[in-house]
Amino acid sequence: MSKRSMNENDPIQLVKDEVIVLEEDVGIETETQHHRFMRAALELAEEAHSVNEVPVGCVFIYNPTGKIIGKGRNRTNESLNGTRHAEFEAIDMILAQDGYKALAQDPSKNFWRDVTLYVTIEPCVMCASALRQLGIGQVYFGAGNDRFGGNGSVFQIHQDSNLPHSNYPSEGGYLRAPAILILRRFYVGENMHAPDPKKKKHRIVKKDL
C-alpha cells in the first residue's frame, strides 16, 4: 500500500505526500514557497469544513516581505451572506491593517501588484473580477472550478482584455489532490444547510483523482 493511499482521509498529510512527489519536478526553493503557502490555505479550508462551510481557504502574500498579510475561509453560511468567500474575508483582513490600508489607498504605490494569492480552489467569477479590479499581482490555486471558475475553467476573467483593469497571471494545480478531497468530504457528507433532497447521507468519498 502506498503512502498516499494510507493517508487518503488526512488532507494535511496528503499535502506533505504531494510535496515529496513534486520535488522531483521543480526546484526545491520554488516548491517550498508554493507548497508552504498552499498548506496554509488548505488548513483554512479544513477549518471551514469543520464548521460546515464550503471548504475553501486562501492566503495573500506581500511579495517584498514574503509574509502572509491576509487569510480567509468561506463564511457564507456563518454570515448568511453569499458574498463572504475566502478571498473577500482575506481582503478585508488586509484592509483592516492601517499600514496596508494606506498603501492600498495610494495609487502611486501600486500595492496589489506586489501581492500574490494562494487559494485552494480557482476563484469564482465574482472573486476573479474583484481580484482584477484590485490589480492583484499573481494567483495560484489548487483545483479548478468547473462550475463557476473565473480564471480559466469557465471564464477567462483574469486575462480578458475586453474588460477594464489589467490582466493578471493565474496558475492552477498546486496541491490539487488534497484540495479536491476536502471538497469531496464536504459534499458527500451531510450539509446541514442544504435542502433535504440534496443531503447525501449514504454516499462515500471517491479517492481516485
Automatic annotation (TrEMBL):
Residues 32-170 form the CMP/dCMP-type deaminase domain. One of its GO terms (cellular component) is nucleus. InterPro entries: APOBEC/CMP_deaminase_Zn-bd, CMP_dCMP_dom, Cytidine_deaminase-like. PROSITE patterns: CYT_DCMP_DEAMINASES_1, CYT_DCMP_DEAMINASES_2. Keywords: Hydrolase, Metal-binding, Zinc. GO terms for molecular function: tRNA-specific adenosine-34 deaminase activity; zinc ion binding. The keyword Hydrolase applies. GO terms for biological process: tRNA wobble adenosine to inosine editing. Gene3D superfamilies: Cytidine Deaminase, domain 2 (3.40.140.10). Pfam families: dCMP_cyt_deam_1. It comes from the Eukaryota. The keyword Metal-binding applies. This is Cytidine deaminase-like protein. It comes from Lobosporangium transversale. The lineage of its organism: Eukaryota, Fungi, Fungi incertae sedis, Mucoromycota, Mortierellomycotina.
